[in-house]
């Protein structure tokens, strides 16, 4: 029986892509799934603690709406430059991607500034009671994701202005980072409702 050898020149195939064609995309999806469950568990814990009290929040006013609402508006508006970043990266537009990444870095730093002030008007400390603990835990968990994305965006911003920025892999990293920011924004909307609206209307 004769052996057959199949040989093909694959040198013209791309070394990296976007979306499900990359392992990074799947890794990011898995990470978001795990962290999404963490948010769900934290949310149910909040609701369970709430059911143990007759008045909510117990013995203190709810968090001030100003900074939390400003955070919500800022995050929703940030989807505009985030979509832009994804599109220019998919088009391998180096100049546009550089601008978009810098814009998203600025957006991330602004949201971190807002979050700092948000922590100052929660009207509860982490050690006040069970309510204060879960309030700070949920907000702290979301802050970790903000810091993670801003840090990743900062690294990308530096790389995009070096010779590594021209590599197709970097463009894929930008699209994955945009997807992760969508997760950060999407996770915040129910958190805002839980922490700011439920205590006022429940």
From TrEMBL:
Gene3D superfamilies: Cytochrome c oxidase, subunit III, four-helix bundle. Keywords: Cell membrane, Membrane, Plasmid, Transmembrane, Transmembrane helix. CDD domains: Heme_Cu_Oxidase_III_like. GO terms for molecular function: cytochrome-c oxidase activity. Its main location: membrane. GO terms for cellular component: plasma membrane. The keyword NADP does not apply. GO terms for biological process: aerobic electron transport chain. Belongs to the cytochrome c oxidase subunit 3 family. The chain crosses the membrane at residues 31-53, 65-84, 96-114, 134-159, 180-198. InterPro entries: Cyt_c/ubiquinol_Oxase_su3, Cyt_c_oxidase-like_su3, Cyt_c_oxidase_su3-like_sf, Cyt_c_oxidase_su3_a-hlx. This is Cytochrome C oxidase subunit III. It is found in: Cell membrane. Residues 1-200 form the Heme-copper oxidase subunit III family profile domain. It is a multi-pass membrane protein.
